[in-house]
Amino acid sequence: MKTTASFKRGEIISPVPADYIVEQDALVLSDGCRLRHEAGFNTTIISRFLIATKDLQMGEEVLVNLNVLFYDVRDEKGFLFSGFKNLAEEEKQEIYIYADENVRQQAIADGFVPNRKESGIDVVRTRNSQLVTVSRGRHEVNNIVFSSTGVLLPFPVRSTVELPGDQHLRLTGGSEFIRHACQPNLRLAIEGDSIHGIALRPIEGGEQLTYNYLCTEWDIAEPFHCACNTDSCYRFIRGFYYLNAEEKALLFPSVTAAIQEKHHAALPQTASLASLEKTTAIAVTLEGKVAAQRYVASGTVLMNVNRFCVRSREVVLDSLHIPHSCDANTALLEGRLVASKPLLSGDPLTLNLCTLFYELPLPFECHCGSSNCARLVKGFSTLSEGDKSGLIPLAERSVLLEAARHGLNVESSSPLVKIRRYPPMGEVTFAADFIPKGTRIFHMRGLVIPFPTVYTVYLGDGNHLLFADGAHCLAHSCDPNTRLSIDASNGTASCFAMRDIEPGEIVSFNYLTSEWDMASPFKCGCGSASCFSTIKGFRHLDEESQLRLWPHATSGVKSLFAQHRRSALPNLDNSLVYLHENLSELRLARDLSSGVVLFTATTFCIAAGEVVLDDVRLKHSCSPTAVFLEGRVVLSRASLRGDAVTLNINHLVYNSPVFACHCGSANCVGEVRGFAGLTDEQKNTEMVYVDPRVRAAAVENGYRIQSSCPLVEVKPNGFMGQATFAKSDIREGTRFFEVSGLVLPFATIYTILLVDEQHLLFADGAQCLAHSCDPNVRIITDNTRKRIGCLALRDIKKGELISFNYLTTEWDMQTPFTCLCGAALCYREIRGFKYLGDEARQKIWCMATPGIKSMVIATKAEDTWAQIASTRFFVSNDGLLHASEDMKDGTVLMKVSCMEIVREFLSLDGIRIRHHCSPNVAVIENRVVVIFPVSAGRK
To answer: At 270, is the pLDDT very low, low, confident or very high (cuts 50, 70, 90)?
Structure first.
């Protein structure tokens, strides 16, 4: 192979295709060119590009040392080269700087240490077998620690630093193993292909050398997290470009000339190597050809294009020449060059000129060699019908319009539809036969790109599916007969019939349900009663229209809606509720019991007789299926599949604009005015579900909560609001004030814990029971019947405040408070049983509910707490442990892991047992054992 032009050292001569052939003394490329092996080489191959290592004149033979490309070919007979692995050490050191990256990595893994004996540095292996560079001697500030040279490259690879003019210097020998540090001991000074390490502070002999990569790299191809752990660590090292203004100003005095050049450079107006390097996806050769520099996924935008022109066998995009291929790997879409199929490193970019021109101004013979090669390329007009259909999603809009004008025949991939020309709309899908409701009409696959076009549907996460095969002819209608279903993970979409479709009927879907922001808005002429007129995208609809279309909106549109607006809609669980297609009414998706949380919302307001929760509208009912508590919509009664989710406005506001209610329930109030408009009897009935602010407003306006218990009355109690008082004398041991309510999976200010994640919301005056650290009642819970009651701990006089200790029923208080009961043993901060110490827990254990005891057992690993919660023991009012049954001597009561003497008690894993000189139990081998018989009831 000989050069066809002059090349300077470091310039790309040509890409090296992956399908080369290795002969005895040469590399034969797919176009027949031979790269002869020679020890005295003038080029090298790095990342599948042939690069000049010396200045070359036009017509000079290209020579390459193939040991830089192959690591071990010793077993291949007849080759004039053996591979890098089998070279002498001196020759390895000599050609290592030119070796392909794969060869370099294999050599290092095999123990090779590249060190071209740069003055001042040594390369050593660490304990974990990594190579690092250390100083050979001691150096003062501003001393030159080492000097080295590298290989000029027109693109970055591992161990390159940037140079001005979009060049890169490949470090080698010792300098390539200098690690990054945010507080380094070196800075790099680069002159041409020479590099000098300058000491930033005194450096000792044997000290590892470091420099700050942010000072040499504008945009690092493989960013990494720094672990230097200094106070000024930059954490994620991406390149100087990504630093903030303050960080850039701090580092700027130490950056290289290449970083200074890019920092001061104006933004490029046309595509160039500088703009392409930003992603390191493609590189440009001197001939203007473009090739992939690494693996590139299909759908990736390679560059933006400001202008293009066609020449024979190629298109010029800005200043870049891209050849034609009938099986191209890129396409020009909406002013962007996009990879239409995956690209491997070194693959040259190609583009089908038939996607740009209906009739080419300069037809030419094609020799691309693809299976579908057109041979004579004249433009889109002369392609076969099959080839046209395949190129439709990639073709310029002007090409498609011209094709349609000439009678383009579009084939459908679905046998259920035919595509015919419909003058008002162009090419449109019609039902070829009867299509039953629920039938999948199209299953669409295609190119996934990061921007919308007229033929894309939004998938989500910034991705858009570009489809064809007739699906792109699906018409829009504001009253459609199909809907789209998106599978974002697989990049596909399906079209399903929403109702029976008759033969010959236009098959359509509502574009508003699939597009957040239309790439090309248009005026709709569907003529339906619910026509939206201008179709701009879901984003531009009013709230009522969005709610109406929500059941048919794709997952991609819903995800964007959630990002742009505070909304409850995206959080709706389809297994619990759904929006009715026609009524926009929220309904139950299956039979559900009371207490199920349907969805959450952050705000509510009343509008036109409805409750608007964020953007979900629920109708009012005097006998609702749900309540709104603590930002959650909860079923208040068991309901059936298809039942509407309704709320009672009287629960949520004290005063409401008056409107007539037509809910038809037995307890309908007729006119809704808010809680204030209810009778006292109605208020007492609804009190259990009322918002705490409404309850407070009612009390302020003189409403007196009624008690359902004849022994108790509710009266004002100063700053405590309304509280419960004994209406008559109540004897010790009396059970009274039994109430039931709604079981919730979360706590509110008016709930009591039954068991974990079950909280009873109650009323009937019991919600006014006061707290005291020295109470006169305890709470009895009935988990089976979902009821609670009170048990008098002592005689209670008429007029006495009735109170219980909130710590005995609540594990973790939803609304903690400071107690002012004044009792001698006041707990002060009432936060819940969870926050009490072991001694305090045992003191009130006798009053604790089963729910609290089960929480203790669940959170305490010790056997002692599980035992005292069992039926074998009980804790008396004075906090001492008693036997519930007769126990024989030798009985093991519990296992103990920790013992501690606390005053007159022995604390066993937090359980206190009083000292006695004639004890009935002893601790033997970490077990509490009965040593004298204990009768039931005895301490």
So the answer is: very low
CA–CA distances in Å: residue 922 to residues 291, 894, 901, 934: 85, 11, 14, 13
> Where does a domain end: 402, 435, 457?
402
Distance in angstroms (rounded) separating the CA atoms of residues 505 and 663: 40
- 362 and 230, same structural domain? no
State whether the Cα torsion 247-248-252-258 is positive or negative. Answer: positive
Whether residue 154 lies inside any domain: the answer is yes
User: If DSSP codes are grouped into helix, strand and coil, which group holds residue 683?
Assistant: helix
Instruction: Please tell me whether residue 840 adopts helix, strand or coil conformation.
Output: helix
Q: Categorize the per-residue pLDDT at 212 as very low, low, confident or very high, splitting at 50, 70 and 90.
A: very high
Query: 73-103 burial by CB neighbour count: b if 16+ within 10 A, else e?
Result: beeeeebebbbbbebeeeebbebbbbbbeeb
Higher pLDDT, 224 or 323: 323
674 CB neighbour count, 10 Å cutoff: 19
Same domain, 688 and 584: yes
Task: Specify whether 436 is located in the same domain as 463.
Answer: yes
Q: What is the pLDDT of residues 476-530, one digit of tens each?
A: 999 999 999 998 888 899 999 999 999 999 999 999 999 998 888 889 888 888 8
Q: Whole-angstrom Cα distance, residue 97 to residue 99?
A: 6
Please tell me what DSSP assigns to residue 472. Answer: G
Percent of the chain with pLDDT over 70: 96
Q: CA 265, CA 293: separation in Å to the nearest integer? A: 24
Name which of 457, 516, 525 is nearest 491 in CA terms. 457
619 pLDDT more than 90: yes
pTM greater than 0.85 (yes/no):
no
DSSP code of residue 815: S
- Asked whether residue 822 carries a pLDDT value surpassing 90, the answer given is no
Say if residue 345 is in the same domain as residue 243. no
Q: 557-589: per-residue pLDDT in tens?
A: 988 887 877 777 888 898 999 988 777 789 999
Q: In what order do the strands lie in the sheet with 440-444?
A: 440-444, 492-497, 482-487
pLDDT band of 168, cuts 50, 70, 90:
confident
Whether 207 is in a domain gets the answer: yes
Which range of residues forms the domain containing residue 254? 121-264
**Residue-wise DSSP of 608-628:** TTEEEETTEEEEE-SS-SEEE
Mean pLDDT computed over 267-289: 54
- Is 560 domain-assigned? no
Give 698-722 pLDDT, tens digit per residue: 998 989 999 999 999 999 988 778 9
Residue 144 region by backbone torsions, left for phi larger than 0, else alpha for psi between -120 and 50, else beta: beta
DSSP string, 399-419: HHHHHHHTT--PPPS-TTEEE
Q: What CA–CA distance (Å, rounded) separates 344 from 610?
A: 59
Tell me, yes or no, whether 897 and 915 share the same domain.
yes
d(CA 67, CA 83): 5
Length of the chain as a residue count: 939
> Is residue 310 located within the same domain as residue 362?
yes
Contact 186, 178 (CB under 8 A): yes
CATH number, domain with residue 773: 2.170.270.10
Provide CB contacts within 8 A for 740, sequence distance 6+.
Answer: 760, 762, 785, 786, 787, 788
- Decide the pairing of beta strands 440-444 and 456-460: unpaired
- Extract the tokens encoding 622: 């005097």
Which DSSP string do the residues of 11-51 spell out, in sequence order?
-EEEE--TT-EE-SSEEE-TTS-EEEE-SS-SEEEETTEEE
User: How many Å apart are CA 624 and CA 646, to the nearest integer?
Assistant: 5
The domain tally of the chain equals: 7
- What are the angstrom distances between the C-alpha of 670 and each of 354, 620, 678? 72, 12, 11
905 lies in some domain: yes
